Every structure is written in structure tokens, then in C-alpha cells.
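User: I've been going back and forth on whether these two constructs are worth ordering. Before I decide, could you fold them both?

Assistant: Sure. I'll take them in the order you sent them. The first construct and its C-alpha cells:
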Amino acid sequence: MSIQKLLLWLGLAIVLAGAGGAWYFVYYAQLDIYVPLYVQHCQQCHGDRLQGTELAGALVDPDPKQRGKHWVSTQQILSRMAAAHAPLSNVTYTNELSDEQIKGLAIFVGERQRAQRFAEFKFDRQMRIPDQVVSEQHNFRMETVAQGLEPLVFSIQPLPDGRLLVTEKERGLSIVDPDSGSLQLIKGTPETGGSLDILGVQYGNGWLLDVATHPDYAQNSWIYLHYTHLCAQCGGLLASSMNRLDRGRIVDGAWVDVQTLWQAPLEFYSVTPDTGAGGRIAFDDAGHVFISVGIKSADEGDESDKSPQDLDSPYGKIHRIRDDGSVPEDNPYALSTNPLRRTVWTYGHRSPQGLEWHPQRGVAWNSEMGARGGDELNELLPGHNYGWPFHSRGLEYSGTFVARHLQDALEFDLADVTRTLVDITPSPAISSFIFYTGQAFPKWQHNVLIGSLKGSSLFRMVFDGDKLVHIETLLHDVARIRDIEVGDDGLVYLLLESKAGSRIVKLVPVDGEVVADI
């Protein structure tokens, strides 16, 4: 083990020692608290594998291959549980279980119905790439564009000439040749740090995150890079880092003309911001750029830290600037005396994994991970509060309702929390998403295509305005889908993450009947 990794282990141990929520996570990664609860209250009737008995029906599909193909929400499960148990006077369903326990059991059952387990992140699992796929509106096949990438990847960005940019968190920024699948590493990009795998979760600092081209890239060649900047002068045994947004150009294989557009003061640099960093970029159609900044890892259990609700802290926010780094005059806090507050667009976010501009509604949307449940898809309205860590539709890792710090929030009103468009509980660990506007899949026009990490699935969501009206699972149990983009060719590109080697694939439409199904 290198000295850098040894110091990272030591530093994380010190941080987690003071972070109760993080220790809850480590503990319950080994023991799911709802297993003994299910055994005590449910197993006699529903079976030790949720397969059903003569006393009660199965809670999961008897065919394991079918599990996870159909969308299910916790609210649906709760309604079914209540209806099924209401006529049974001898069942202790409501007499002995708290509201938290009932909701937790519903999440537990929902996870099994989606073929998920609480502490199974599928980072070590082999990718399962189908030859051809049948979907409701378009049949398609998956073709590999590039493989053998580093395990920790984050973003892809198609270029007008058919090549792609890709960020590997520790290796750097590269250009992918789609014909050969080869990668050209760009020289001079920001310094990167190390990482550690702790119970399937990757910790580290100094990671490259999102990469995006300017909407007028063909004219100005600007490329925007969101990363966690390592601070050499912050002192201490471990390097500190924090989100930063740069723009630059690639000339002769080198990163040049670099300008820093957004950076937090050094006082907010930390040894644990990267895992929940957010790190996405989105442009609107009026010269603005949005960036997402998630929570620090320590926020999970630090009772004194309410930073997503603190407008003078960069954490747990969506920030908005002009594409040259200046502050727009119509930002909700543009007149604040605190320069950091001036860029805040929305707040109360936990782990924002996706960020996109809705071309029809003229507003930014984001996807966001909760804790155990509470994944969200949000419409980002200026100055609005999205609740974390005072409110979530999911549960804490400890099994309690999300209400941390609520007793101390004298000026907080739950009625002020902006309603999420889609509550995704049980949580598949939602990742990146797009609004599809290509021509290769015409029946998907303006649909949301959204990936997942733990769920290893790709979903298609249909909206009527801001109302979800339909969900289809396009891919199930394929691999951790870290990013999703649409090329100028209209094809859908996925960045698949795996410890054995990540890869880029594309979805290609297939005419006629397809006999194989995932």
C-alpha cells in the first residue's frame, strides 16, 4: 500500500469516527436492519426468500430474470401492504411496527422486487451487454465504442466530428477515437488524487468529474471541466479538495487557455468532498452555465453541519454563472454581500448526479441520490429549497425518517420545500440523464433517459409538462451507468462503470422484429 493510500485510510477513519451517519452506513452495509425485522414479522407467511407460502403470496417475481423489469414505488407497496393486511386481525402489522419500520419494510421489499440489495453496489460485477433489446417503441442493439477504461469514470461528451471526450477520475481527460476505440490522454489537465474502495464505495480526492462543450463549441472551441481541485497549500497530512469549474481548449493534445470560472474559498476545502461532489455541468440557451455541488461525506453524520441549508456554504447547491464566470444579475441572491451566495441558484441538495437544461420548459432539472430511498428528479426553480438534510422521501441509513437538524431549524418550514417531480423509492442510485432530442429514436422525442448505478438499469420517463405519466425500463441489470449523452448522430451513448474495466457503448436502432430480450 502506498503512503498516499495509507494516509487516505487514516484520514477517512478520523473523519468517519466523528460522522455518525457514515458509521451507520458502514455497519448496515454488513447487516441490513430490515432483515431481522422481516424475519420476525413477515417470514412466516411470505417465506424466507419472499417467495410466498400457503399462508400468503410471493412478494417478488418467482422468475429472478424478471425482477427489476417493472417499475415499483414505495407508495404502491405501502398501499398493497395496507390493503392485504387490513382484513387480518391476527397480524401485528400495524400494532407493533412504527411508521418508520413499516416504510423501511416497504423499501426492503421494493429493493428485492428490483433485484437490489441495500449494500450491493455492483461495482465488482461483470457487465451484461445484450446483443439486441426489445422495448415498447424502439428495438435496439448495444455496440461497444471503447473498452478497458479505468474503473473510476465519470463523464462523456460527444464531439461534432464523432469523437468523444471522457473523464477518468484519476487518469485524466482523454479523446476517444470511435473507429479504433483508442484513447489519447490530454496533457496538462488538473492534477488528480487517489481513491480507496471501502465496502464497495469509492473514496478519494482530486477527481476529474464532468466535461462539457460550450453550446457554440464549433466557433469558440471552449471545453468546460468540473473537478475537485487539490489544494497544495492547505496543509495537513492529507490533501484537501473542493469543486472547481475551469474552461480551456485542447490544442495539439494539450489543455491550454485555461480560465477558472468558479471556485470556493479555501476554507471550504476538505479531505472528504469527492464522493458526494455532484460535479455536473449544464448550459441553458441564454449564455449561462449551471454546476452542481453535493454534500461533504462528513455531512452524513455531522450534527453541527447544515451546509445544504446554509446559503453562505457552497455545499448542497446548484450554482449559476455566466459562461465567462461572471454572476448574472437575475440570480436570486445576486445582491448579497457574500460573493459565494451570489452564485446560488437552488439549495437543499444531497448528491446531485445529473444536471440538464430542459429545452421545452426552459428550466434546469437535476437528478439526485437520497440515502436509503429518496432518489429524486427535480425542476430547479430559482431560490427554491429542496429539503436536504431536513426532509426526504427516503430514510436515513439508520432506518429513521430524514429529519436531521430539524429540531434546530427555527426558521425552517417543511411547507417551503419544493416538491420533487419524481420520488424514486426504493432507490436504484439514480445517476445522469438526458432529454432525448435526436433523430435515431423519433418516438423517444423529449423523453427523459436516466441511468442508475446500484440498479444498473436505464429508464425511459415520459412527462406531460412536469407530470410523470409513464416509465419503461429499457435496460435492466447491465452495468453501473455513470453517464449518458446523445451524439450528433442521434445515437445514445452510455458510460458503463466497472472495477474490471469501464467502457463506452452506444444504442443503435434495429429495424424489424428482435427475438432476443434482456
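The second construct, handled the same way:
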Amino acid sequence: MNIQNRKIYDVCIIGSGAAGGFMAKELTAAGAETILLEGGRKIEVAEMNNHAWPYELPKRGFGFRHQAEMYPDDIEKHIEFHGDKIGVSRVRNLGGRTFHWNAATYRFAPDDFREWSLNGIEEDWPLTYEELAPFYDYVEQEMHVFGTRENLKHLPDGNFVAEAPPLRCAEIFAKPQLKKLGINLIASRKAVLLKSRKNRGACHYCGHCMDVCDVRAIWSSDITVIPEALATGKLTLRTNALAREVLINQDGRVSGVSFVDRITGKVEEVYAKVVVVSCASIESARLLLNSKSSRFPNGLANNNDIVGRYLGGHSQTTFTGYLKDLVKTDTWQGDGVTDHAYIPRFVDKHKDFVGGYGYQMNYVSRRYPLHAKSVPGFGLSYKTRVRDLQPALFQMGGYGKVEHRPTNRVTTDPRKVDKFGIPIPIIHFEFSPADRALFKAIVDTARQMYETLGAELTPGDFNNQIGGFASHEVGTVRMGKSPKTSVLNSYCQSHDIKNLFVVDASCFTTFPEKNPTLTIAAIAVRSARYLAEQRRKGNL
């Protein structure tokens, strides 16, 4: 193609999840001609068949998501882990992880942005809660977040669209007893429709949030902000476009993206005045590290060797108990969403660690008896015991803060590549002594709560082995005040390259115990509006 005739977009966005979706909506609304590259394809919810019983699915449901192509290209094989046991989620589909998530949406607290000032660990964010609060307000309305106002120090109330559904039987039973321990049990806060909208149904409490909502009650970028952006006529959507390198010009500015068409295998290029990377923490770091040049031999925007470092997430484990007072009862728990209830952080200070932890509750479908594989015996007595325990289910998932340290990182190696010849991500991660002390508190507190509630724990249902990240990985391209210790400013703009933005959880400076998606969305909107204003002024 003649270089003078090639198409140059105002903005190229890579990744279509919460960050990429909101970026597309805001930038096209501001008049920017935008192209959105997504490495996967658009998946229809009918493909998921998520109301089928396991015996009706291929391999009795084992590996079903892989067959639905959210994880194509043998992506789970093309990654390498060194250190402690963690897991990361690297989906390739339109909508990213918002296509299948539990939609838990919790604001970070003001103190969560000031770890260094308050606790002497990590660094302070280069923005405050007060600066982000208006964007929390906006995205909560856009995502249709429900909740209850609780006036808690560690969990700010949101700009809720609706009241949360009532607590269910086991949660109502537990709430006053846990209150005696100084522990609050509240309704969850979720980005879920409770009343139908155009092209989206209301939640019918099926318990399949994470499996992909078949009526699209859960907020997902592929059915909300991306269609809104397309409706402006300013967005070009390219699916199956797997980014391999961000291109730069002779002036050291980014000029576009080189990508592989997953269907044809052909390498193509797209050109833009601004590039926004929003591939999630592992893939964003991988893309920048693989974008080497004479000006950036260590990877794009990485002359300070910070890209890939400060990988974080949550320490996490799951506990499953059965409330003895509800065993053998003919009790209907009540309609509910997954993650129906939440125990927010209640620890202020601890001698062995800084930070806190919380518990998400009852986030599994009640169609399936989780305890069946742990109950001893067989035959009629076995079936009776499984049935007796089912109404008494009280499940908790503990989520704890993990310190951001420079040795926890993502790297790449040109000798280790995926099926497209792109160097794979290599993960180096170890929990610190403080991380392990905090995780021990998660386990000890869970045991105390179950004892207080008079719960029965079946064998294998109380997991005290530390793990992470529960799809909550963050960091690797962090924002900060100093170009020496960070990659981005508070608007997710590269310190080194003014027309490069990295807008997803990789920008997080630190990470508390709350889920990341609401904060990802709020930061993306703030960044998009800054980017649009800089374009209007002619600075980009």
C-alpha cells in the first residue's frame, strides 16, 4: 500500500473488556475515529448451553469452556509459571472477561490508594479516591449496579441503580450471629439487571453468572458499550485480530499495531495517532515486552525496567460448610444471584501484615450438590445424606490483599513462542511472609465463623492452602508519580511515549481485597475523557 494512502485512525484500542469497551464508548462519543482490535471472536450465548446438566454436555461438562472457544489456540499451554501456585485468566472473545464474570462490583476505599502514606508499604497511587469517585458514580449507573447502603469505612457506598435482592435463608440465619463477632454480612453489589431492558432480560437467579448469563442480565461490554460505540459510526471492530507488536515511528511515538489474523494466519498492520493497550495485566505486559526496537530494546516504554514488574492479585481459597440447624429441613433458600452476600473487610491493623480481606458468599449454582463427592458411603443412605445437606449450604470464598513487589513479574523469551510465533508470557511469583500471614488470618477467621454458626465441614471442603489470583491479576504496567518507578501517569498515559496509553488492571499501583472490574471501568472513563481533551487541544 502507498504510505500516503494508508488509513490512519485517531485511536487504536487493543482489547474489548471493561477497559477497552468503555474507552471505545467514550472516545467515539467524543468524535474520535477508532478501531478496536479483539484477539478472539464474538461468541453467542446459545453456544454455551449453560442450563444443561453435566451429563448432557461433552465430557460431562469437563473443559466445556474450552470448547466454547473463550480459551482458543491452546492458550493455557502457552504460558509458563515459576514459583507459588497461582492462576491467571487469558480469554479471547469479544467482551473479554466481562463475557463471563460474577459481576461483583466493589469500590476501593480512600485508604486503599494510600498504602505508603498510611502503612509504609508499596507506593501511593498518583490519584485519590476523591478524584475517582465521580467516575465510580458514572460507571455504576452505566453498568446498572445494585446494592445496599451500609456506611462502612472499608467499603464506600455506591451510586446504586437498584436495591439488592434480599438475603437468603442461610445468610439471614448467619447475619446476627456474625455481628456478635464484629463481622458484617451484607448483600452483594453486582452489575446485574433486576428488570429487563431492550435486548437484555432480568436476572432469573439461575446461579450461572460465571458460566455466561444466557439472558444477558450481567453487564458485559459486548452488549452495552461496544454496540453504543458502533452506533456512532466512528468505530471499526476487528475480531480475531491478535496483537503481536505495537509499532513506533522515527520520532519514538507509537504509530500503530501489528497483529495476526487468527483465521488466515496473515500478519497485518493498522495505523493510528494514539494506541490504547487494554489486554489485561498479563497480556498487556507481554505485548509491551514483545514490542522491542532500537529505541526501546527492553520493550516498549520500558527503559526503566518496570514493565512486567509488580504483578499482584488476590490470595484466595474457598470454604464450604453446612449449617446444622438447616440440615434435613425442607428449606427453600430463596432466589439469589451468585456472590449473593458479602463480608467486607473488618480488620484495621494486624501485627503480622498490612491490608485486609473479605469473603464472597454462595457463588455457586444451587442446582449441584457440591458436597456429593465428599460424603462417605453409597446407595440410599448416601443419597439421603447428600439431599439432607443441600438446604444447609453456606459457602465462603476468602480474598486477601497481596503486596506488590518488583520481583513478582511477567517476562518473555524469544525462544518460547505460541502457535503464532509470538513469545509467551512467563510468570514469576512468590507470596511474601506478610501475604502468608494475611492468608492464615483468612483461614482462621473462616474457621471461627463456621464454629460460631454451628456448621458442619465435610472432608476436603475447608481449603487452607494458599493460592491466587481468582482471575483478579493486576499490576505489571503500573501508574505512579515518578517516571523512575512507574510506567504511566494518573491518566494511564505512558511517561515516555505521550500517545501510548495502557488502560486495564495492569495500571494499578496497589490492590486491596476488593474485586477490580469497577475500578478498571472508572479509570478507563477518566483516561478516555482526558485523552479526548488532549486531542481537542491538539496535544496528541
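Notes on the second construct follow. Residues 62-66 have pLDDT under 50 and may be disordered. The first helix runs from residue 18 to 29.
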